Structure formats: structure tokens, C-alpha cells
Fold each of these.
Amino acid sequence: MIILRKDKLNLVEPDNEVMRAPPALYDFTNEGESAPGISTVLFERMKQLGGVGLSANQVGLDLRVFVMGLGETKIAVFNPEIIEYSDIEELFNEGCLSYPGIVLGIKRPIKIKATYQNETGQIIEQEFNGLTARIFQHEYDHMNGTDYTDRVSKFKLDYAKKKVEKCVIEGKVVDTDWDRMHTYYSKIYPNIIAQLEKEAGITAKT
Ligand SMILES: [Zn+2]
């Protein structure tokens, strides 16, 4: 049995192939890390990172699994399919743990109906409204090898990145996880990061 530890679940780069292809179905008959085991470490890691949803492929696990929740309320979702969308849509600002600081206004249906398996393998059909419908659909994008940045124009995405760049230049902290922030920003803003490191005397751990 593989023993997953939450502190070993590191976020992968958004262009990593595990995030750019639909992950494999979770097989409940397979020996391996148990479903409750996977959902528990994912949920703990999600809370540690300060998110309200986390997909297995965001931390490098090629599994059609995500968790979501607020506080101690955990919803573990295995092998999801969205089967109905409401006609009414709503624009809402979304963030993603894989893109620290990037906030994008995304239009999505306010209500969905989905089927999935819970951590005991039981098939659930459930309606989600409001914030849970929002989070479900965001994570569901990850299950299809896409994400929220694919839902906006290049102009909108560049603008959001520029806003983050401004925060970095002004020294406003947009993420408390320096290691993660560094890995991400060093790719898109190498000069700024180098300058910040010099000023702050920070040497990034690689
Ligand atoms: Zn996300």
C-alpha cells in the first residue's frame, strides 16, 4: 500500500502533463491507497494551502478525484460526471491553488446536477447550488485536463497576471507559501523575483 503524506503532496506546475490530460478513473477494486486515505490527505493539504477545493492531479496524482469543503466539512468526489447544468449563469471571481494570486471572473451555471462516488464507492447523484456548484465546476475542469485560465481570453489572463506583478513589485504578499510562490513567479517574472530576493536577502530553496 502506498502511504500518502500530505506534506509530500506538492503542487505541480499548471503546464505539467498530469494537469493537461484527463486523469485516470479511480478504481475502487484496486489495492493501493484507500479512498478515505486519499481524500483525507488531499483535504488536509487543501486546508494547509488555504483552498476550498483541491484536485488530485494538482498535486501530481493521476486520479479522477477531488475534495472540496469549508472548515471541517469535507466532500470527497471520486469519478465525477456533471449531468445537468442550469441555464442561469453567474459571474464570480475565482482563484486556484495552482495559480497563486491569479483571480479571474468566470461565468458558470449557478446550479448543477452531478454523479460521483463517495469514499466508500457508493454512487451519489446530487445537486449543487451556489458556492459548492462553483467549486465543483472549477475542480471538474481539472478533471478534464483544463482549468479556469482556459475560460478567459488571453487579454483577461494577461491583465490578471499584470495585477499580480504589480502586487509583487509593491511588495504586497499575495501568497504565504514562499516556496510555491517562488516556483511559480520565477517562471513568469524572473527579473522581479531576482530583485525581490536581492532586496529581501531571500535565497529560495530549490
Ligand atoms: Zn484550480
Amino acid sequence: MPERQIIDSDVVVLGAGAAGMMAALAAAEATDSRERSVCCVSKMPPATPNCTTRAYGDITWALSEHEDELVRQIHETGGWLGELDAIRGLARRVPTVLDRLRLLGVELDEPRPAAEGMPGVIRWSYRGRDSGQSVLDRIRDRALERGVRFFCDHMATQLLVSRNGVIDGVATVSLKARRPTIFRAGMVILATGGGACLYARTDNPDGTTGDGFALAYGAGAELVDLELISFGYPSQRVRDILERGEEMREELLGLGHAHYFLGGVAIDPSNHQSPQVGGLYAAGEVSGGLFGAGRLGGSALADCLAGALEVGGQADRRDDRTDHAGVDDRIDGACAQIERLLRGTADPAPVLQRIREIAWRGIGPVKTGTSITRALEELDALTPRLADLGGASREDIRHAVEAQNLHTLARLVALASLEREETRGNYWRVDHPEPDNASQLRKIVIRRGKSGPEVASRPLELPDDIAPSQPRIGAGCFNYIAPG
Ligand SMILES: Cc1cc2nc3c(=O)[nH]c(=O)nc-3n(C[C@H](O)[C@H](O)[C@H](O)COP(=O)(O)OP(=O)(O)OC[C@H]3O[C@@H](n4cnc5c(N)ncnc54)[C@H](O)[C@@H]3O)c2cc1C
């Protein structure tokens, strides 16, 4: 087994999409000195598609006099399950994001009205679909000038956390060199994107496997709204199918795709830090709770970039609870796990495929308490097959870790979905087809307990002037239409 590699740095950013790239640049600028090093780590080879490079490039925004309208639209689209203060913060910060993109030389198309019935809400695009790579290239060039070090083909497998709950760094497997690479750092920024590849049908690129959710869960951080996922559907077809009623489930399962994870790592909206793990931050799709049960089109990239600027800007601060006692033991443990992985021989591809089919049928767009429970049983039956996954190629190693992460994620999504007995926004429980404002205006949160996941919920307080009615959802998402 090749020697492990240890790299010391101040800040490690996991992910090289919009959130990761911008966080790395902002962190380098905040520290503004080459002594404080920033590393940006990604599991994929350079220029491989991620959600940012697949995006249409739409960014929704409002002039300050229409900011309240934008906030209202985002909040209503999320079925009032979003975090109102965080939504207000996002609406305020989008102009800074657009200024930043312009300064980086990104060309923005002429703004256009976002949609009918949204006075003053405007949508900008950075030159449409597949132009995301050139945006990332511009951010990367500037980050390189600032001394950011980039590590491709390095896949994070475990966050290293001290006994008093403070980050020590992150363990990765170098997919090319087939060896453990450990980044020791007091600040880790998760920017690993969403997890829509949990599902057999998705528009997300390969590798969008929710690794950050599994990493955060393993580290003891709280996850929020994991049951809330956007599914894309042709809404007229859905309407026709629901009107006919029969064979509805099978027909719907033959259409549509998973698009966006609304839930994710719980963060303190004022600084994007995990309240449970000091020094662990999250930005972009991996962070959760902001939008609630649906997302207004063009608000994800805004959130990625605004969040990244916010997080990176704090790179000069430190958690004063730092206690690195025992860090060497933790590193040994993480390396042993990676070495086991590198010795694995079982092909991960069929296991990955099986998890994704279970998820689509059981905890996807059309679910019931029975389908969720069955999915949990099927996932439990797969557990023994996770032990020896691996193989000779770098894809085999990546897929082996992804299969383990998707298995964890599927179980967490299932547990959260069992808890939410209603239909709201993008979230549909066929056996509970109505929204339940009396008992379900709450956040469902999950943490790792002593003997497995612990599910809890937190009520949401709404201001007096907001009275939730029948929730609706935004354009481009699965429009829930009550049967009959
Ligand atoms: C088809 C499509 C169109 C869209 N259009 C729009 C739009 O027009 N407007 C809008 O606002 N939103 C849009 N979205 C949503 C938006 O693109 C995403 O939410 C956003 O790009 C996510 O960015 P991110 O930086 O969080 O993650 P990503 O861009 O997905 O990047 C994740 C990064 O993390 C890395 N990574 C993951 N796991 C690991 C690991 N274990 N170790 C190391 N690295 C890891 C990956 O390699 C990658 O570099 C669209 C999404 C899709 C799929």
C-alpha cells in the first residue's frame, strides 16, 4: 500500500462547482497572504461536468425596492418551510454576487422579467446552458493567482473531528495514486453539491451523490429537510395522468427526474457554520433548510455564490475550542478505512444501480408510508454487499464510496419522509395528499445518535402577517395537483 500523504493547510474547500470555487477564492482573499493556505479538493478530473456546468445560468434577482416581493416568492414557493431570515439575507446579497461575476469578467445577458405575477423580480443569465464551465474557469484563474492549491481526483471519505466537536481536517483517497491523502485544517468548507443521483432518473451529472450529506452525518452534524427534493415533471402530462387516476403510480414513475436537494447540512444562517461541528461550514446545494419544500427557478446559483462569498470571507477566523489531542489516532483510523477500500474487489456498479432503483420507487416523487418502509427493508438487505466494494480503476474506487454514501443518504431520506405525513410544494405523500399547516409547519432534522440516526423536528415560527394557505411551487418543478 503506498505511503499516506499529509498536507497541512488553513482552509480546505471540498468541491469545485460554483460554491466551492467561489468559496476558495473568497477564502484566499480574506486571508490575503500566501502563508495561510487554501486547498480546493474535488473528486473528479478537471473540466468534468458538475451541476454548475450543467446549469442554464439563470440567476433571479430583484431591485432593492422589490426585494420584499422576491422574498415572498421564495418563501411561498417553499410552502412556507424555508428559513425566512436566511431568504431575506439571500435577496439582499444577490446584487453583490452579480457585481462579483462582472468583476471576474463574466458576461451577463440582458435581464428579463422572471415570470408573470412577480413584479420587479428579474432574471439574469450568464450566457445560457453549458456556459457554467467558463464561469468556473474565470473564478479558478483568479483563485490560482491568489495562491489556492487545487487537488482533482481526490475524494473526501471522512471528516476528522476532535472529541470536543471541532474539525481537524479531512481524509481523502487519491483516486489516481491509490493512497490516502490527509488534509489537516481548522476550517473545512463543504461544497460538494446535492444528491439527485440517489435516484435512477435524474438530470444531474454523474457524481452528484450527496457525499457531503454522508460526510456531515458521519461527523455528527445535523441535517435538515432531507425529505424535500425537487422532481422535474412535464406538468401537463402529470395533470392528464392524475385525471385518469388508474395506474397513476407506474405511469408517473416512468416519467420525470430528480433535480435538486432542498435539504442538506444544517447551518447557522448568519455564518454558514454547522452548529454542531466547530470549523465545519457548508455552502451551495449541500447546505439545507433555506428554501423549504420548493425552490424558485434561478435561486440555486444565487445561493451557491452568495453563500460561498459569505463563508470564504470568514477564513481569517478560528474556532477557539480547538483541541487536536488524539488527531493522529483519528488519521490512522481514516487511513485504515481507505486501505480497506483500496483492497476491495466487489464491483460497486450493480449495488449503486440497485440503491438508485430502490430510491426511485420507494422514496422518490410518488411515495407512501408503505413504499418508504419497503425501501428501508430493501436497503437493509443490501448492507452486507457494501463491505467489500472496490476495484482496479479510479471509477471503481469512486463508485464504491458513492455507493456507501448513497446507501446512507437513502436511509436518511426515507426516515425523514416517514416523518412528514403531508403533501406540500415538491413533496408528495400519496397517502397524505393535503398540506397540514396545523401539525407539519416544522423542520425535520436528523443526526447520528449512539445507535443510528436520530430524527427530531423543530416547529417553525411564522410572522403574524403570514398565513399559509394551499402551498404552491415554482416554475420548472413538479407541480403537485391534488387528485380529483
Ligand atoms: C440541468 C440543470 C440546470 C440547472 N439550471 C439552474 C439555473 O439556471 N439556475 C440556478 O440557479 N440553478 C440551476 N440548477 C441548480 C444549480 O446548478 C446547482 O444547484 C448548483 O450548480 C450546485 O452548485 P454546487 O457548487 O453546490 O455543486 P456542484 O456544481 O454540483 O459541484 C459539486 C462539486 O463537489 C465535488 N465533490 C462531490 N463530492 C465530493 C467528494 N466526496 N470529495 C471531493 N469532491 C467532491 C464535485 O466533484 C464537484 O466539483 C440547475 C441544475 C441542473 C442539474
Amino acid sequence: MTAVTTQRDVVYNAHRQHLKVAVHAADTTSIQTAIDAGADSIEHGNDAKDEQLRKMRDKGIFLDLTPTSYSSFFLKIMGRA
Ligand SMILES: [Zn+2]
């Protein structure tokens, strides 16, 4: 069973219960897995390629940049780190 197949099962069962599925995915492979599995939202999405972002838009997959994961980045640019 592949990661996509497993995630598809999770998404299928969640949707049957009228639940949404959010996937925390940062690298291109995990982002693609989430897209292919039919996730409702992708958290982080750091390495998303343009084509993946287009697919997400077309499929109505929400992108949540999850800014808390970048707290050290924001602190650095604000001169507080
Ligand atoms: Zn996360």
C-alpha cells in the first residue's frame, strides 16, 4: 500500500463522515501525495512547485502557510533573533 493509497483511504473515510482533512506537508513529495489523496488543506507547503499550487487551486485545496513554523524566520527579519 502506497502513501497515496493510505491517504486516499483516510480522506475517503473522513469525507464519508463529513470531516475535512488537513495534511501537514512541507516537501514536494508529501505535498503531491496530499494533492493526489484529495486532502482539503495543506499546511506549510514550503516547497510547493507552481504546478502543485495550480492543482491545489483547481481542486479547491486550501493552503495554510502555518506561520508559526516560521517563527525563527520572522524573528530574524524583525531583528529580534
Ligand atoms: Zn505541521
Amino acid sequence: MFEGVFDLPVPEKTVHAIASPSEIEDTGEITHEMMGDLSKVMKSFKLPAEASCGLSKGKLLRASGVHGLCMRQAVYEALDSKREPCESRFPMTSLFAMDAGTALHETIQDRILGPMRVLHGYWTTRDGKEKRLGFWHEMWPRYEEYSFRDGELCLAGHTDGVICLERIRRLKAGKNFDGLPMNMYTDPCHLEIKSTNDRNFKHTKSGNLPDYYRWQANVYQMFLEVDKTMFLYMNRDNGSLCSFIYQGSDKLKDAIKEKAATFKKYRDAEAIPHEKYRKCPSINSKDAKCCPFRRRCFGA
Ligand code: SF4
């Protein structure tokens, strides 16, 4: 199952793009603990933990939310039912970790996989005014993630990219891409970038890929018409990376299509799914506490 990418030599140009020692200014004096422990401050900010209903703007199921979806909640949301404030709160530190993960995506796409010339898609100029399809180039250094939506399948989302395994094999064999067409698109594979803490990183590295990531990967594979996903994990605690290939499953793809079709049927009929579709065993369960439709759902 595992096939590493990051045992490859990263081009020197890439390293320079990340940091040049001559650009780091030494100000001489260091004064510690001016701000105290900011993580304590962040923990004290609590935000409403309203559950995501897993819908895109067009009332389609989002790829990242299909696995954990509550069918009733999604239909309430699609029918614009009145929402109630949520009881649960989550700390600002969680938001901080999510924002850090988003920023890491760009670093991996634009500064590592891009200059390695293995990431395929639309690359734009720095100002985003021009773009072209293919692989990274100094003139087009920013990656644009693929977006998709399919009203018939009732699914939408955006992927982290498409990586060409044939190009990776060439790099591993010590070859370069001289003489290859710029748009050579051989053995494409869906790319999924994840950042996580040390504990989850070790767990995943040992072969435990969570079910919700398997579902998400299969949705993207359907849209990209590929059968593999390369998961690229970054350990937020120490910056280490690991990668592996997940082979998609036709059985999961069928289950996804079935779930989306069920949602579409209820949404179009403007009918709330039967009680058997309730995700929560009671109004006091963890998921219900952050659901904006819990009272309506349980008739309270
Ligand atoms: S309370 Fe639970 S079961 Fe009911 S709609 Fe919300 S998430 Fe679904």
C-alpha cells in the first residue's frame, strides 16, 4: 500500500525558493516571553461548533462530508429550514490548526511538488491573471486546485491536485523530463494532502487510513476518472512528510452514489428522511449538540 515520494531528491531550486540564508535578518537581541503563553489565550476563545451539513452552495453533497453525513440534517439544510444556535463550542486553537493546514497545502503544491514537475493542472502567474494547463514553470508558479460539481450525481468538491506517477518513477530512476511534452499526463493519480499532529501521523503512517478519507478519495477518483489516490501527510509537530498510494474501491464508489441518490430523492421531494436516517441516538448526543436542527429532528 505504501509508496514513498519524499525519499526523492528535491531540486536545489526548490530549497532556495523556501528560504535563502542571506535573506534572514539577524536583529541581534532576543527578549523572551513578551506575550506569555498565547496558546492559553487562544484556548480561551470559544467558537460555536456548528456541525457542517456537508453541502456545497448548490445544495450538492460535498466530497469531504459524504462519509459522516446525517441524511436528515443535510435535507433540513437543503430545504433552508430555520437554524438554532448551537450548544457546543470549540477552541480557537482548532481553527488555528486548520488554517495552518491550508497554508501547508500551498507550500507543498507551489514549492515542492510544483518544482519537482510532477503535479499536473492549471498553473497561474503570481497575480493570477494568466494560467495554463500542464506542469510548474517559473512564470506560472501557483497551483489552482480542481473544482467539480455534478448536479446529476449530486456531488461537488475541489481536489488538491493530480499527480503523475510515471513522472515520479522517472525521478526515482534518476531520469529527468528532457524531451517529454509539457503536458505529458501519464498514470495520473488523485493527490490528497493532509496535515496532522504527531500521534495521528504515526497512526496513519503505520497503514491506518480513516474511513472518511477513503470515502473522500473515492469521490475525487470518480470525478477525475482515476483509480488511485496519493495521500501526502505532513506532521505539523515536526514538519516530516510521508506518502502512500490508496487504491480506490468500486464498492465504496457504489455506496457513495447510493447515498447521494437518496439525498437527492428527499431533497427534490422536499421531504425529511425517515427517522431511521437519524445519525444521533438522542437529542443529548455529541453530534446533536452541534446540530442546528436538533429540536426539529427530535420534535422537542
Ligand atoms: S440532531 Fe442528529 S440526527 Fe437529527 S438532524 Fe441533527 S445530526 Fe441529524
